[in-house]
């Protein structure tokens, strides 16, 4: 009598594993094999078509002698620091604001999170119009009587990167808000009561107690934002096409240009591998630390 239920459990477990086979095969084919193929091409002299020869690290040496690639890395570093910092701060402030049980909370959550549901291409085009000196904020302000008002950052080489930060922060900060708000809602109300009794200022509670407790949500938000930084492409193409000149060039655009525009898949593959290794070097230790912290929390 006991053996029959056990057999049914084993059969159900086996069926579940069989159902996972297509997904596992797809993941292996689409990700692992693709990465291995890209790594192989990156150590060849491939141009328009893949080549079976081996040139060692020659493509990587050429890559880091390429001024456009080095500029794209510099731009990505500046953009990443500003974007992640701004999203974290703004998302946290929005989460704290909504956590005060404000009226119309559901509507506000939707309004703040809605931009993240939009395509980065759509966001880029909208902000291109808003920031266009002939159509957007500058022109509106001058029509209102501010004849000397100037806001032409999108056509200034030393400021164009900040316009991309503004547009993408507007889009992604709602995601951080949603993640941190869920963390704030998980904090015991007794903590706030104890803080009020002890007369601790609210800002000190948030800084010294709440933020450390939000570590899982903060680390998740950081990983998601970091991935968005590395993937930055659509917004740049929609807003600036990498210009003026190459002032807003980013690695993903560099890769796409060399892959399709200049037909140099060897160099493009080397650049792709550099980005992949950068992501692994930053995200893997953070994920490991987060996993260990969660294990300690369970114990």
From TrEMBL:
Name this polypeptide is given: Sugar ABC transporter permease
Segments crossing the lipid bilayer: 76-98, 110-130, 160-184, 205-230, 265-289
Record PANTHER family: ABC TRANSPORTER PERMEASE PROTEIN
Listed Pfam families: BPD_transp_1
Domain ABC transmembrane type-1: 73-286
Membrane topology of this protein: Multi-pass membrane protein
Domain of life from the UniProt record: Bacteria
Native source organism of the sequence: Pseudoduganella albidiflava
Family of the protein in this entry: Belongs to the binding-protein-dependent transport system permease family.
Database matches in Gene3D superfamilies: MetI-like
Keywords of this entry: Cell membrane, Membrane, Transmembrane, Transmembrane helix, Transport
Localization, UniProt: Cell membrane
Upper taxonomic lineage: Bacteria, Pseudomonadati, Pseudomonadota, Betaproteobacteria, Burkholderiales
InterPro entries on file: ABC_transporter_permease, MetI-like, MetI-like_sf
């Amino acid at each position: 009598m006991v053996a029959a239920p056990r057999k049914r459990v084993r059969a159900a477990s086996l069926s579940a594993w069989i159902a996972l086979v297509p997904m596992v095969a797809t993941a292996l084919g689409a990700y692992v094999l693709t990465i291995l193929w890209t790594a192989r091409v990156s150590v060849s002299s491939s141009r328009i078509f893949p080549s079976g020869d081996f040139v060692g690290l020659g493509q990587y040496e050429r890559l880091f002698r390429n001024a456009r690639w080095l500029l794209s890395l510099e731009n990505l570093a500046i953009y990443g620091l500003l974007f992640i910092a701004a999203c974290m701060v703004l998302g946290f402030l929005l989460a704290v604001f909504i956590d005060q049980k404000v009226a119309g909370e559901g509507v506000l959550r939707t309004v703040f999170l809605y931009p993240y549901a939009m395509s980065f291409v759509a966001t880029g085009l909208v902000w291109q119009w808003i920031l266009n000196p002939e159509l957007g904020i500058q022109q509106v302000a001058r029509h209102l009587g501010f004849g000397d008002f100037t806001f032409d950052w999108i056509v200034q080489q030393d400021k164009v990167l900040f316009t991309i930060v503004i547009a993408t922060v507007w889009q992604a900060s709602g995601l951080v808000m949603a993640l941190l708000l869920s963390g704030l809602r998980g904090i015991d109300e007794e903590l706030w009561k104890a803080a009020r009794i002890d007369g601790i200022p609210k800002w000190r509670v948030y800084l010294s107690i709440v933020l450390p407790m939000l570590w899982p949500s903060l680390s998740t938000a950081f990983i998601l934002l970091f991935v968005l930084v590395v993937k930055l492409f659509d917004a740049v193409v929609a807003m600036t096409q990498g210009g003026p000149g190459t002032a807003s060039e980013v690695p993903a655009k560099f890769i796409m240009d060399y892959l399709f525009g200049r037909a140099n898949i060897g160099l493009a593959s080397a650049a792709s591998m550099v980005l992949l290794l950068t992501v692994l070097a930053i995200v893997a230790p953070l994920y490991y630390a987060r996993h260990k912290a969660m294990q300690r929390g369970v114990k």
